[in-house]
Design a protein that fits this description.
Helices cover about 35% and strands about 25% of the residues. It is of the alpha/beta class. The protein folds into two domains: about 1-80 and about 155-170 and about 180-244, P-loop containing nucleotide triphosphate hydrolases (Rossmann fold, 3-Layer(aba) Sandwich); about 85-155, no CATH class. Helix 3 runs parallel beside helix 5. The longest helix is centred in the last third of the chain and has 16 residues, at about 170-185. It comes from Ruminococcus difficilis.
């Protein structure tokens, strides 16, 4: 199976306003692909289309070769999605939420138990699993949402600003998990504002500005068209021609 996200000629309009304009790229297997751009550039709109939350105005999107619009249920079973907000299912306890997600994906009891123990200990929330998500800090909610998205061991990870709110140790653990995942031949596609993280972590970079895709490829290829020793931050600011 080819483990990748393939976006072809994706456009999203709201009325007369074009939010994303005719972009195409792939997030390949065995690679961490970073999706970067200013606020309002179209990152979340693109990710919501990839995950089937919204429908494209035109274009096609496939996950592991499965069209998200034509066979949404099968396509959605291929990936784990972490949205840019962790404030969901607040009345459930952490373990209730994880078991709920595991039930949706028919994750066997032995597999989910091992997953919950492993990830909860790595994230430092094992002792809080029986508390309600409402009582969690923002960072703890982010961790439990990440665990819920990954509990069925999907080949493709789609993460929208996943490091926001995480403490340094948990951010380190998540980055390690991402590296471990792609070493198995899987795919990680994530958006981030932290360019230093993208530079150190990503195998490929996609840069979007005002709904237009400016670049998608390796950082080495990007540097080849700029100063060879330039940081991703400097190249990004040069390409987007504006500072936040």
């Amino acid at each position: 199976m080819i483990r990748l996200i393939c976006v072809q000629n994706y456009t999203k309009k709201y009325g007369d306003k074009t939010v994303v304009n005719d972009i195409s790229f792939t997030a390949k297997d065995g690679a961490i692909t970073g999706f970067i751009g200013h606020n309002g550039a179209g990152k979340s709109t693109t990710i919501k289309a990839i995950t089937g939350v919204i429908r494209p105005t035109s274009g096609s999107i496939t996950i592991n070769g499965i069209d998200i619009q034509k066979d949404g249920k099968k396509a959605k079973s291929q990936f784990g999605y972490v949205s840019d907000s962790p404030d969901h299912f607040l009345r459930l306890s952490g373990v209730e939420y994880l078991n709920f997600m595991a039930d949706i994906y028919d994750t066997p009891l032995d597999e989910r138990s091992a997953f919950i123990e492993n990830y909860a200990k790595r994230f430092g929330i094992y002792d809080s699993l029986n508390s309600t998500i409402l009582s969690y800090s923002h960072g703890m909610r982010q961790k439990i949402m990440i665990m819920g998205a990954l509990i069925h061991n999907p080949s493709v990870w789609i993460l929208d600003e996943p490091l926001t709110g995480l403490d340094p140790q948990s951010a380190f653990e998540l980055k390690q998990m991402m590296r471990e995942h792609v070493k198995k031949g899987n795919s990680v596609f994530f958006s981030t504002h932290v360019l230093e993280v993208a530079e150190k972590l990503c195998d490929e970079i996609c840069i979007i500005k005002k709904g237009e895709l400016l670049y998608c490829g390796t950082l080495d290829e990007l540097r080849a068209t700029h100063k060879s020793n330039a940081s991703l931050e400097n190249i990004f600011l040069e390409l987007t021609e504006t500072k936040e």
